[in-house]
Amino acid sequence: MNKTANSKAWLFVIPMVVLVAFNALIPLMTVVNYSVQETFGDNVFFWEGMKWFEQVLRSDRFHESFLRQFAFTGMILLIEIPLGILVALSMPRKGPWVSVCLVLMALPLLIPWNVVGAMWNIFALPDTGLLGRMINGLGIHYNFTQGPVAAWATTVVMDVWHWTSLVVLLAYAGLCSIPEAYYQAAKIDGASAWAVFRHIQLPKMKRVLTIAILLRFMDSFMIYTEPFVLTGGGPGNTTTFLSIDLVKIALGQFDLGPAAAMSLIYFLIVLLVCWIFYTLMMRGEAK
Amino acid sequence: MAIELKNVTRQVGADTHIYETNLSFDKGGFNVLLGTTLSGKTTLLRLMAGLERPSSGEVWFDGKDVTGVPVQRRGVSMVYQQFINYPNFTVFDNIASPLRVAGISHGQISQRVEKISELLKLTPLLERLPSELSGGQQQRTALARALVKNAPLVLLDEPLANLDYKLREELRDELPRLFMDTGATVVYATSEPLEALMLGGYTATLHQGRVTQYGPTPTIYRKPNNLLSARVFSAPPINTATIQKEGGTFRLTDSATWPAPDALRQLKNGPYTIGIRPHHISVESHAAGAVSINGIVQIAEISGSESIIHFHIEDNSWISECRGIHPYKVGESARLYLDVSRCFYFNPDGELIAHPGAADG
């Protein structure tokens, strides 16, 4: 095929180029600019090279919040994915209850992040919150503003409450796309419920589940608002995840250089993991 | 009798899917259920399999009442229109799966799988996953799974409908042969009259949840007992019209009349229905005694050496399928010839009173 020169076509591309530039490229380049320089205000900059990157990568603080972040993401994935599948499996496939279930499932997804954080904060306060009082009433000492375990548990449960629905909806869509004949064929074979799940439902849900894992990974890896409102990163630093730490460095301490370097490292990690997922997914497709 | 439905009905909520039905299929026979979509073919298959319970009536298998027996203890295998295989099993494991559930020894499994895969030309594909197979190969795998079980009853629900034309023809030729050797009773549901004719065996025609006729396939085609069976068993659809008997003649339109055949001379005067298959209406007069009619052409399709002409004659939409290429324009008036010696005659209740061959003696 011959390529035809069409200069008018550029006119149609320009709006998008401008949008992407202002939306992504210019902010990103500003961050790159900060990450290699030192500034003391007044728009005076000194070249620092890779110093901030080295500093961030060597700092214990970064290692700790990085590990916290991975632990948190791993934990919520381990809970939300199986739980989401379980809920999707027990949802009705037809009848009037389908829409009721779907709306109920969609509700948590519609609530803004900071509202979720505030809700759980009020809900879980040990002296006035319904949940906090109930747990303490059972004789278990619970105070998420003081105990690290309680703080982690509350953050994890809050995220599970907020986001399991997404996994449920995706898994449910996958389940609904399985033709009835598969179940009949399994029934004729005399296959057990476990075999139906393992050899029909799970393989048929593979694609949507990969997307669910990818989405939950990205979202939870960048989590900020909910734990910020709930615990503020505390007690101590125990729930200070990567983005909370980043904001503390950038806006709390105003260390723009290290914060910019950390942003870029953070960005590259997310990009790398997404690329790995994407490659694995595409390889599965090609097969 | 291998499988027998006795006064079976099936209702779901307020809808009746199957009206009271009696059917019995011979052991080892090849049976076709022929009907349009929603005529109840799939429901009948599911009732025979035991995937659905009849609302009333009994299902008998091999001289035993199996009405309440769950499907996995019935000795049934089934193949569907969609290609149903376990997505993460190789072809070998897919074919072996019913045998593994049945607890058959390892050595015997591979022996039986190998034999069946050879029969279905799957031997080079045994290590592949279903997603790496073409549609035809996937359906062969599903057929192999149904065959390997040696189930005494094999149910096939439009198994060729999702395949392309060439594969369909190929498998259609193979299917009756594959099942003949196993001694299994086969029930094959299809919506295509030509497929039923090519498969042979016995056919039950279905119309809106009722069996309209059951008998040897060619017999039903040649001698449908009623208008419904004739309509189900004709592709393109059979042409029908109300005619008037006046003395010794039948009148279709004012200009199209013909003398009543000897066998129908004694009938009362009044309205009757004729049915005539599209290939007995031609633009050329071949048969002696053909009646000429005037039609208004609606569509004229040309398929290689044949023309299919859709036309209106008075209030009836008719189709002619005739040799040669006849490019008519839409709205054009066409002279067509009706071979009245090939007509079916039905009384006002839709029952057959004369068919070609019988009228000729």
Task: Write the topology of this structure.
The complex is a heterodimer of chains A (about 290) and B (about 350).
Chain A: H1 8-35, E1 37-39, E2 45-47, H2 51-58, H3 60-90, H4 97-110, H5 113-124, H6 130-137, H7 148-176, H8 180-189, H9 193-221, H10 225-230, H11 242-252, H12 256-286
Antiparallel strand pairs in A: 1-2
Helix pairs in contact in A: 1-12, 2-12, 3-7, 3-9, 4-7, 7-9, 9-12, 11-12
Chain B: E1 3-12, E2 15-25, E3 30-34, H1 41-49, E4 56-61, E5 64-65, E6 76-79, H2 91-101, H3 106-119, H4 135-148, E7 153-157, H5 165-180, E8 185-190, H6 193-199, E9 202-207, E10 210-216, H7 217-222, H8 227-232, E11 239-246, E12 249-251, E13 257-259, E14 270-276, E15 281-282, E16 291-303, E17 306-313, E18 316-323, E19 333-338, E20 344-346, E21 352-354
Helix pairs in contact in B: 2-3, 2-4, 3-4
Task: Write up what this structure looks like.
The complex is a heterodimer of chains A (287) and B (361). Chain A has 287 residues and is mainly alpha-helical. Chain A has a single domain, classed as MetI-like fold (Orthogonal Bundle). Chain A has twelve helices and two strands; from the N terminus they run H-E-E-H-H-H-H-H-H-H-H-H-H-H. Chain A has a two-stranded antiparallel sheet with strand order 1-2. In chain A, helix 9 runs antiparallel to helix 12. The longest helix of chain A is centred in the N-terminal third of the chain and has 31 residues. The radius of gyration of chain A is 24 Å and the shape is globular. Chain B is an alpha+beta fold and 361 residues long. Chain B folds into two domains: 229 residues, P-loop containing nucleotide triphosphate hydrolases (Rossmann fold); 115 residues, Nucleic acid-binding proteins (OB fold (Dihydrolipoamide Acetyltransferase, E2P)). Chain B is built from eight helices and 21 strands. Chain B has a six-stranded mixed beta sheet, with helices on both faces. Chain B has a six-stranded antiparallel beta sheet with strand order 13-12-11-14-20-21. In chain B, strands 15-19-16-17-18 form a five-stranded antiparallel beta sheet, with no helix packed on it. In chain B, helix 2 crosses helix 3 and helix 3 packs across helix 4. The two termini of chain B are 34 Å apart. The mean pLDDT of chain B is 88.
